[in-house]
Amino acid sequence: MKKTFIHSLLVMLALVAWPDRVRAADADQDWQAILALDAGPKEQPDSADAASRMVLSHLNRQEKALRSFAAEHPQDARVFEARLRLARLLQIRADFEGTDKPRAESRSILEQLEKTATPEQRPELEFARVARMMRTLSPGSATQREEVLKAARQFQASYPADRRLPALLAEIATLFDSQPSKKEDLLQDALPLATDEDLKARIMDDLKRVRLVGQEVPLHFTSLGGKEVKIDDLFGRPTFVIFFANFSPPSITALDRLQQEIATLPKGSVRIVGICLDERREVAAGLVKGHNITWPVACDGKSWLGPLVRDLGINALPTVWLLDAHGKLRSLNALEAAAARAQQLMRER
After folding, report:
1. Who is most buried in 70, 157, 167, 339, counting CB within 10 A?
2. pTM
3. Annotation: CATH topology of 220-348
């Protein structure tokens, strides 16, 4: 439920140590070793750079393992899945390294599998196609978002009992923060299908947030400086609400970026309030001082379990909201073009 930079890198791969090559002697044993990669790495990197090096190392090992399995057990029924996994891994490598060659090979593998897939294998291939569309999506392309949504709905219609469907719909919903009704429809479809408790909790949080859009946000806290802050205090000007923590480097980057955006606006034209999820208040106070923050920051030391965080359905960092002059939530993802969004709200007053 909680997303940080290093955590995201680890989840993206879910890899563990792997020997330099797969043994040819026992396909079952080799396949079990491949499945063990899903358990995740044992290392705990202490920085983003260390996490990146670890990810790349495991990418190399997993790629060797999958290629070796397909080469050394060509008649094994699991070769289809091995190649499907390889196509997915190559796409991840392309995204991670910013190179096109793995992406082209990934596409070629999927095209080859398309020609040989059995009816039983077809759902795996179709799911891989939707996942690939999501990974290659341009963030600002509304057309591509609609294409991904269409593909996901087609998968839903074709395979309504597929175990991966609720997670797929919940992930597609993240693309539609700017279209709350579509986001809610996707989440409503995903919730009754979900059996995993963590996924259910994530969907419930996401629904809680999307249902706040257009509503006055129940914001009430005591800042690190001891000042009581209520939503009524924020009326009259657009307000950015940023959720961040020292343990989430991307949220600190977002914090700096937001301050840079706000600096381009007329002084005093918008407000900012912050919710820090660090467990130690002194860490939060250090962030406030180190980043020259003069606006109210809440930190109750309860991190993800804090009542304010739970009430607002926050389950990812960074999160940046934009409220209008009446305290109503207008954007769930306001970091992109933050200044322009605020100016639009100022014109609407």
Report:
1. 70
2. 0.82
3. Glutaredoxin (3.40.30)
